[in-house]
Structures are given as structure tokens and as C-alpha cells.
Design a protein that fits this description.
α4 runs parallel beside α12, α6 packs antiparallel against α7 and α9 packs antiparallel against α12. Helices cover about 70% and strands about 5% of the residues. It has two domains: about 170 residues, no CATH class; about 80 residues. A two-stranded antiparallel sheet has the order 1-2. A two-stranded antiparallel ribbon has the order 3-4. The longest helix is centred in the middle third of the chain and has 31 residues.
Length: about 270
């Protein structure tokens, strides 16, 4: 999964409404419950964090409060993800973003009929032009003979060896179309399984993978008025790794614990 997401559990899940110290997180962040659900849905669909509202409500909190916020928000994020609304929106998302249908297979009869019809249209257009352009009877006869010769060629193509060659060419063209469509369907099903619980399982595993090796004791240096990791390997980590580092160990541990519990609660087939 690109940009190993905190998958709507760490920071984007904070956008879900949750009571904390008598005040809703959505109120603290200055967003509506609807915008909170959008942030959670977008995070799960994109596999990356969708932030909403004022992050200061989280960044200014103590480590213990951050852990409480993550747990409370993730609880409500889970409730939304398990709701009929999420399932319906997920189904709509799959339908709208799935691979294009496999093009209809062309047959030799269809191709030849189209070619003949196109030729007859050209013949009619030329005959109309004859009305305006003066041509001799001999010229008209020559043109009509050419038309008949072309019709004979079409008849030969419809019944002779050229038809066999055309059928072979169409079959050769069809094979890569079928293979490409099958590959696109397979990739889409892997990225967005029909069962939304399978998608949830993928996102939870991505969260656990992305946050498994965070060194919260890593040293930071200030360079060009920005803080950077002293360890180049850490500086090369994905943005989500660094985001969790900034969120702190308590918040990340809370998210990981919640993800493990949620993953364990999923049906075995969905959690694989």
C-alpha cells in the first residue's frame, strides 16, 4: 500500500466525533460530524491519512490525553466503518472506480459488414456528386464497373481465405484485451475487495507494519529552520512514519493496540 497509512486510525481517526472531557473532538477541531466521516472514509479508500480540522487540539494535548483521543476517536471510526452507510458508500466507490468493461468481441461478419456499409455510403456520395459534376457516359460506366469490382472483392473476402486471415487477426487482437482486462480486475479486487471487512483488515495490517519500528528516542537536528532526523535512515522514512513519531509513543501505542483488537475481531477470511 502506498504511503503506509495510519489508515484513519491515528490522526485522521481523530476527526471522528468523540466525547473527551465533556467536549466533542469535532467541536475542538472545528469540523462537523459529516466532515469527520468524510475524513475516515477518504483515509480507508486512499490508504493514506486524510486530515481535517485543527491539529492543535491533538498536538497540544499531553501524551496521556493523546492516547485517550486516539482510542475514543478510533472507537467511533470503527463504528462508522461497520455501519450500513460505510458499506453502501464502499459499494458505490467500487462500482464507480472499477475497471472498464471488456470491449465487445468483434466478429469477422461485423467487420466485413461495416466495411461494406462504409463503401456503399461512399458510392452514394459519389453518385450524388455526379449530378452536380458533368461526366461522360463512359466515365460513369467506368465508375460503376469499379464499384462492382469492389463489391466482388468484398464477397471474396467474406467467403475466401482472407476471411480466415481476418478471423485469425481478430483472435490475436482479442487475446491481449482479455488478458489486460483480467489483470485489471484482479488488481482492483486485490486493492478493493468486495467485502469491506477485507479492506479494513488490509488497512489495519498496513498500520501495524508502518508503526512497528518507530524509534521514539531518535535524535532530531535543526537544519534550514526545520527539524530533521540525525539518522539518515530515519530521515528517509515515509511521511506516515514521521507523523507517528511526532504523535508520540502513547498515541501510537494506543492506535496499535486498537488495530490489533479490531483485526482479531474480523472474520478469519476477511483478516487474511
Amino acid at each position: 500500500m502506498n504511503r503506509h497509512a495510519v489508515a484513519g486510525i491515528v490522526l485522521s481517526a481523530i476527526a471522528a466525533s468523540a466525547p473527551l472531557a465533556g467536549q466533542a473532538i469535532t467541536s475542538q477541531l472545528g469540523i462537523t460530524d459529516g466532515r469527520a466521516r468524510e475524513a475516515v472514509f477518504d483515509s480507508f479508500m486512499a490508504g493514506s491519512v486524510s486530515l481535517a480540522g485543527k491539529a492543535e487540539a491533538f498536538t497540544s494535548a499531553s501524551p496521556q490525553a493523546r492516547a485517550m483521543m486516539v482510542h475514543a476517536a478510533a472507537t467511533l471510526a470503527r463504528a462508522f466503518v461497520e455501519s450500513d452507510e460505510f458499506k453502501r458508500r464502499y459499494a458505490d466507490h467500487r462500482e464507480a472506480n472499477g475497471p472498464d468493461p471488456l470491449p465487445e468481441e468483434q466478429t469477422a461478419d461485423q467487420v466485413l459488414a461495416k466495411q461494406r456499409a462504409g463503401f456503399e455510403q461512399q458510392v452514394e456520395a459519389l453518385r450524388k456528386q455526379f449530378v452536380d459534376d458533368a461526366i461522360t457516359p463512359e466515365q460513369r460506366t467506368t465508375l460503376e464497373e469499379g464499384f462492382e469490382a469492389m463489391r466482388a472483392r468484398f464477397t471474396e473476402m467474406e467467403k475466401g481465405p482472407q476471411r480466415t486471415e481476418l478471423e485469425a487477426m481478430l483472435k490475436a487482437q482479442r487475446a491481449p484485451q482479455v488478458a489486460a482486462h483480467a489483470a485489471a480486475v484482479s488488481a482492483f479486487e486485490a486493492a478493493y475487495p468486495a467485502d469491506p471487512r477485507a479492506l479494513v483488515a488490509m488497512r489495519l495490517r498496513a498500520l501495524l507494519d508502518a508503526t512497528a519500528d518507530i524509534d521514539f528516542s531518535a535524535r532530531l537536528l535543526e537544519q534550514d529552520k526545520k527539524q530533521r532526523f540525525a539518522n539518515p535512515a530515519y530521515e528517509a522514512k515515509p511521511a506516515e512514519w514521521k507523523m507517528c513519531f511526532r504523535a508520540g509513543k502513547s498515541a501510537t501505542d494506543a492506535a496499535r493496540a486498537f488495530a490489533r483488537t479490531w483485526l482479531a475481531d474480523l472474520p478469519p477470511l476477511a483478516a487474511k
